[in-house]
Description:
With 364 residues, this protein is of the alpha+beta class. It has 11 helices and 12 strands. It folds into 2 domains: 2-179, no CATH class; 200-348, Rieske Iron-sulfur Protein, CATH 2.102.10.
Amino acid sequence: MSESHDNQHAHELTNVPDPAVVNDLYADPGLPEHQWRPTDVDAHAEKRAERQVATLFGLSAICTILFLVSYFAFDIGDDPDVVGGFGASNLFLGLSLAGALLFLGSGIIQWARKLMADHEIVEYRHPAASSDDDREATLAALNAGLEESGIGRRPLVRNSLLGAVGLLGLPAVVALRDLGPTPSQVEKNADYPGAGLEHTLWAKGVRVVRDVVGTPIRPGDVEIGDLFNAEPETLFNGGEDGEPLEGLALQVGKSKGAVVMIRMAPEEIIPGEGRENWSVDGIVCYSKICTHVGCPISLNERKTHHLLCPCHQSTFDLADSGRVIFGPAARALPQLPLAVDEEGYLIAQSDFTEPVGPSFWERG
């Protein structure tokens, strides 16, 4: 039975069609005769197409410049400029940006249709894993494509394309202004305490109070190993005018003024340079806002005095000036200098000496 099966298999193998015979039986239909484009055979047509492409890229650049002009030229405040019943700013910003993209895309299409190589190719299927020969062939094809595109020998097309694409990035840069005012602008125009990114409600003499309840804290109220959340008393008794904080001022004050406090043995503290008097009887105070992306920190390893951010596991050493010992955070936690007032309550010596929270452009 086995011998019969082997004979049958051998017979099947010997009946595999010969490729040469198949080619004779089925004629190769081939490809239709190549139709040359005018730009392939006429040097004047080629130059004309090159100028057309450069013109389209130039129009794209002009539209980009018009976008920038429109951004600054039209008012959008209480008395906005109007054209044909539409806001002039939005109208011209939209038209100019659309024109920049349209002309740029049209120029690239025109370039591909009239100036790039126009040859029919056949691509055979191959295994998913590329061999060294295939990779070499791919690199050769890429180099050939660059050569056939003519970008190296058509400086007019190349330079106009680079100019149009380069200018197209400017609207994005200019539009970043609409993300909001800079920290200096906020602080200049704000009418509430602690405005801006560089300052908080903390100031010299402001009492440290427990979060939520707002009760002041004496050093004797805190046991070694205790960690708790705190806020500036200003959140509860109002600003300098005594008026309670409400709305935006209250939310901003809470978000930036939140701190964590911990008490440890004074000999465990490694004070940073100039911070020798920032703690009181082993009590240290740090911003509760992670310097990575601003998550609230609250996970404490009591024995090591390490504070862990639950979002991305950045870990800070509270015994060593809030130094980063693990995770993606790039800066230590800002430390609040502490003191004691005449009544024995914990107070701040000043505001934080650096901005709290994650990085921003203007931060040094």
